[in-house]
Design a protein that fits this description.
Chain lengths: 395, 423
Amino acid sequence: MPAQFVQAVAHVSLLLSLRVLPFAVYAALTTAAWSRRLFVVAAYAVLPLTASCLGRAHLVASIAVGAAYYAVVCLGANRLRGFLARGLLTRGATFGVLFCLFLLLPGLVVPGAAMAAFLIVGWELTLRTYSYCVETSRRGAVVPPLREGLFFLLVNPTLTYTARGFARPVSGLVGYLRFVAGAVVLFANAALFKPFVAYVHESVVGSGLRTWASAMVLLFVYGLAQFLVLYASHSGLASIQIGLMRGAGWVVPECYIYPFLAKSPIDFWRRWNIYVRVWLEAYVFLPIARRLGRKIRYPAGAWGAALATLVVSGMIHDGYVLAGSQILSVVGTQFFVGIGVLLFAWGAAGLVGQTIRTRLPERAHRRFDVAVAVLSHVGMAAAIVSATLAWRPWP
Amino acid sequence: VIAPGGGARTAPAMPASLVEVFRALAGSMILLHYVEHIWFTPRLIGAGGIWSPLAPSSPALFTTWAIAMRGQGPVGLRAFFVLGAMLAMLVALGVASRVCSALLFVVSIVTCRALSPAVTLDDSFAALVPFWLTLFPRGSTRALFAKGAWRTAATTRVAGRAVAAAVVFFLLLFIELAQTESAAVRLAFFIAAAWLVAPVGRWRALAVAPLFFGLWHLTRLETMSMAFRITVFGCALLLVGTVAWPARGVRASVAPFDGRDLVAFATVGCLGLGVVASLVGVRVLAQSTDSLLSNIGLDSSIASGRTAAAEPISLAFAADGEAGLLYAAADSNSPRLNILLNLLTESTPASEPVRKRVLRGFVVAYCRADRYRGVFQPDRSLLLRRGSDERLLAHFRCGRRGEAPEFAGVPARATRQGSEARG
């Protein structure tokens, strides 16, 4: 068995050990029959056992400890919500408290292993718990029972409480099929796509970039392959979570809607990682846009709010790195500011295009539209590749 | 009128005038500190300084900026320090105090990183104090001199959580700084800190007594320079301000706990966690808290000494004939040690302020660093007391120009080419 295959199995089993754990616990707690409970536990146990046998035992142990810690912290979410509702805490402080509890403290206590094993869940829990606290602390809001709250915090993959999906008695078969599909994508990503990216890199390094054109082509191929790897890992994981939620009788929104079909950067932003986008819209963009809207005219206020949202998004990514590896970096913020510049440039180019189109004779409109469509597709591909290379630079 | 820091619902917590006095004192102190920098620091760092602008450093944010700063000539560096002095003046005057404090914090951190091999407590406190001023309630120094200000001085209050956190933070630092002192001094600081946070109401004023006992001892140290003294004075001032707090005052405050309060408490918590972890021997936790504080700029020279006992020491020496000073290619493992050893062990023609500054930096490095135990065995009191410069130099002087000194069997590798090759 090739080492590459073993590595892929170990990686996927470790990832699934972390991600499937809440669903397994939920299923084991809500199932009435003991035989079914045992089946769920045994089926889940295959994942950490596989990871442990393939040399990831210490990370499996870290996941167990981290999950237990997060469950205990989530038990206090309603108390935090109470502080927020009574005005003892501001929203900023609430976010800070959650950041400290879910990210900073585990990162300090288990440096290195926390980031490798479970800190990504802490990052999601920070956003999710913040949303839960804010939404349930509003005046007149209904406070859910602890069980429902914990289900949203620990099991539901969405990040915004108001967009958490709904319960619907559906057949779980479709969900489980989607789970299998997601797992296959994750495995293919680890076993095929990632080695392919490494192969491209090696071949480029080995052959050397003799001409400018060959360098650009290879860089484009490399960037595209990196994007595929990134998308497959995110999309596969989302499929697993959405499928398991369906299996549990819940319908949640999609997380990725074919982002490679996006026609513009803004369209891409709407299709990529929708859970995070909805969270940012609800708790960063809209409050800032409302505040700026009172002072600055449209569209400057909206653009300012959008830029602030991107900066906050970058800071959240940098905060994750700070908590996990104790390194203060602004790479994420720089990246998202660059994305903001790209959005602005695309919007400005669109305005210029519209102006030119209105000045052209009507018979030339068709050709102009075709040219714009071709240009926008090429530009979009270039934008995706450049953004991917900026996010995951050439090693 | 001094604006309350915690919003309209601020409960009385801290006399606003004391906070203003502290800000004015701290701003003046940092202003003097930067004036001192303008005079001689460009000879220490920078393109024409005594160590290489290409010295390898960590890729942390402020360090990157500091490396860029080292590449500047004397004019660029002086302009940078003038900027720091202007910001300090604005802080002292209370003009846009939070923004200026934040900018001053960044300037001070970059200066600290650029000076890292010979950073002193002055530099560290010049960075720490603006950090805390950023979290303090907003105010203006002019309010102190406004009509009738002294009548309302005792009654105008601001939210005091960040102030309390600052006091605890500095007391924790004093506990660390008193590591080389007797147990009585450390106990004094511990009692002061415990008394400050205990729910003892007006009896809290008694915390001043052990605090001043500890400070009296620390002021005898060579490293108790101007910045440190004034910070200590400000700390005492703020401690006195806590006399009027009600019992359990911090928790009883009606003002909502905001983001600044959280940053203040998280910082104190992180330092406290690190101190406790280093005391009980949890090295991993001590290192990670140390690394976190250091990376956000709080503060490498003070916090970094309590871990890294196993850091390998390799010495690299070279002579820089052009500058007439010993040139040290900083080793990524222990740059401070390399450079300071070079400057201390030779009869360098460096001017007195430069030499004195480097000496102080060495004292700080030595005091903080358990990592150097087993390598150096001098009497610590020799290092720390006033007037010990010459004795210290005599203790370490052991070679001629260009020769590597030897300390208790530490191998000295040393050619300029060798160090450059490694760099």
